[in-house]
Amino acid sequence: MATVINGKEHAQQLRDNLAIEVSKLKSDHALVPGLAVVLVGEDPASQIYVRNKAKQTVEVGMKSFEHRLDTDTDEVTLLDLIASLNADDAVHGILVQLPLPPHIDEFKVINAVSHDKDVDGFHLMNVGRLNTDGGGVVPCTPLGSLMMLKSQLGDLTGLNAVIVGRSNIVGKPMAALLLKANCTVTIAHSRTKNLEELCRTADILVAAVGRPRMIQGDWIKPGATVIDVGINRIEENGATKLVGDVDYLSASEVAGAITPVPGGVGPMTIACLLHNTVQQAKRIAGIDLSDQ
């Protein structure tokens, strides 16, 4: 039976460490990291995410700034708000909650956020740096996944990693991080030929394809470490439940370690958002990132 990689415990440890770091930034540098979250519209899932982010931001001693805009807010108004947040010295991280309403250009909005305050790691400058010199801001979900992998496995050098999913938010940055960690990396997707056989070669299997329970236990190499990024809502036995992209029951019989859904990657995503905000506050203030 696979070891369960408990994302809630990992996230709590990271938040505890951040609270200590934030306290030292306040006492040693009079610096209080600030995170601004912008929500456009009434999407229920997005509202829950924003509420959780704001709560955890305050809990670690940071400042939280929330901006909730109506669904029919025009693009110019949103861009003006982002410009004001870029210029606000109390704000060190800006997160625009996705998805945006269809009348707003998501690409334009993402790249309107200063790359120094882009704690999502979606700005073209940060994407470019991740894939070249390894610097810049790393997207939160891949970063949290890497932290858990290193905690579980230690040195990842030489391991064969297969990522199922090629999104700009998870699949591609996850590949860049694993390459930097000296893994041999393959990016696959729903149209990959012989996908089952390819998955069976993986020492590390990252599932981020957005299809509920797509990856079955017999797709997994015995003893492999499985990171399930999927969050899918399905109807089962008359109730709505969350499941991942991996069939957890069958996979846990084969894998060496696996993240559950919920309670796996999700909590680490928010914790890494706070981590990125603290790092950017230090960069903006000219504080050595190895300090604290």
From TrEMBL:
InterPro entries named among the record's database cross-references: Aminoacid_DH-like_N_sf (IPR046346), NAD(P)-bd_dom_sf (IPR036291), THF_DH/CycHdrlase (IPR000672), THF_DH/CycHdrlase_cat_dom (IPR020630), THF_DH/CycHdrlase_CS (IPR020867), THF_DH/CycHdrlase_NAD-bd_dom (IPR020631)
Hydrolase as UniProt keyword: yes
Annotated Gene Ontology cellular component terms: cytosol
Domain Tetrahydrofolate dehydrogenase/cyclohydrolase NAD(P)-binding positions: 139-283
GO MF annotation: an example: methenyltetrahydrofolate cyclohydrolase activity
Pathway: One-carbon metabolism; tetrahydrofolate interconversion
Residues holding NADP(+): G165, R166, S167, I231
Bilayer-spanning residue ranges: none
The entry's keywords: Amino-acid biosynthesis, Histidine biosynthesis, Hydrolase, Methionine biosynthesis, Multifunctional enzyme, NADP, One-carbon metabolism, Oxidoreductase, Purine biosynthesis
Entry-linked CDD domains: NAD_bind_m-THF_DH_Cyclohyd
Tetrahydrofolate dehydrogenase/cyclohydrolase catalytic domain residues: 5-120
Highest rank taxon of the organism: Bacteria
GO biological process terms, semicolon-separated: L-histidine biosynthetic process; methionine biosynthetic process; purine nucleotide biosynthetic process; tetrahydrofolate interconversion
Quaternary assembly: Homodimer.
Role of this protein: Catalyzes the oxidation of 5,10-methylenetetrahydrofolate to 5,10-methenyltetrahydrofolate and then the hydrolysis of 5,10-methenyltetrahydrofolate to 10-formyltetrahydrofolate.
Family: Belongs to the tetrahydrofolate dehydrogenase/cyclohydrolase family.
Entry protein name: Bifunctional protein FolD
Organism: Granulosicoccus antarcticus IMCC3135
